[in-house]
Design brief:
With about 270 residues, the chain is an alpha/beta fold. The chain has twelve helices and six strands. It folds into two domains: about 70 residues, lambda repressor-like DNA-binding domains (434 Repressor (Amino-terminal Domain)); about 170 residues, Endonuclease, Chain A (2-Layer Sandwich). Strands 3-2-1-4-5-6 form a six-stranded mixed β-sheet, with helices on both faces. The radius of gyration is 20 Å and the shape is elongated.
């Protein structure tokens, strides 16, 4: 016997309101989630996650639903009001949903081969990698609150050793940044370094896999032009396989901390 749909409280937040409206319009058209999925380029699992407020979505999802559900652009208009980039908002449209997903996630698996992961950057480090754009820096620092809330997600962060060598602002910035990585480690936050020279499938670029309530999974992949939020099972499986393969070459947490501290002393001592 099918389970009743999850009860949503629109006043609980933007994703709850949007998900409840998607469900309402779908049911008014007499379509099941599977039937809607057949008509738009999104999987049933993703549609279900949006309707249960377990995942954000891009504006294209709202547009596709409007066309199929004959809502006269009601969902796109609602999406614009809830999620779109407003004047003065430094977050690009394609990234709007990701902080919502981070906030809802139960676990985050992160690999970044270029710079320190945004949620673990110091303010000074972020200032340099974001070219002094204060609104963007403040937005990034605000996102970091997800790691200190009562129900913070379990975070596993992998980085190649050369990220520790990359000169961002000299010793005055890099020293405190490496300290931040070591101090962030806890029972719910792991930092593991992949030693230089190890062969692994980590050259494809930055990616994150977020595990949401009820086991739904969403991925984020950074490209030169923009970031992409993915939910297709094949994409998630590929990212998880790559993450596992990279982690197999990473040092344990304790040895990673030792390496980070040693790198600070050898390269970034003031």
């Amino acid at each position: 016997m099918p389970q009743p749909p999850k009860q949503l409280t629109p006043s609980d937040g933007a994703t709850h309101l949007f998900g409840s409206e998607v469900r309402r319009y779908r049911m008014m058209m007499g379509l099941s989630i599977a039937q809607l999925a057949e008509q738009i380029n999104y999987s049933p699992s993703f549609i279900g996650a949006v309707e249960r407020a377990e995942s954000g979505c891009e504006r294209g999802f709202a547009v596709a639903c409007d066309q199929t559900l004959e809502t006269r652009e009601a969902l796109a208009h609602l999406w614009d009001g809830l999620f779109s980039r407003r004047p003065g908002n430094p977050v690009p449209e394609w990234f709007v949903e990701w902080p919502i997903i981070e906030d809802e996630a139960e676990a985050l698996c992160v690999y970044n081969p270029c710079v320190v992961y945004g949620l673990l950057q110091t303010e000074e480090y972020a200032e340099i990698v974001l070219f002094g754009d204060r609104p963007q820096v403040e937005a990034r620092l605000a996102r970091q609150a997800v790691l200190t809330k009562a129900d913070a997600p379990r975070l596993v962060y992998l980085l190649p050793e050369h990220v520790l060598w990359y000169d961002v602002g000299g010793a005055g910035v890099m020293g405190p940044q490496l300290d931040r990585l070591c101090e962030a480690v806890s029972s719910r936050l792991s930092v593991q370094v992949v030693p230089n020279g190890q062969s692994h499938p980590g050259n494809k670029g930055e990616f994150t896999v977020a595990t949401l309530p009820r086991g739904a999974e969403v991925g984020y992949v950074a490209t030169a032009a923009r970031g992409m939020i993915l939910d297709a099972h094949k994409d998630i499986a590929t990212m998880k396989d790559d993450f596992s393969a990279i982690r197999a070459h990473a040092l344990p947490v304790g040895m990673s901390i030792d390496l980070i501290q040693r790198t600070k002393e050898e390269r970034w001592k003031t």
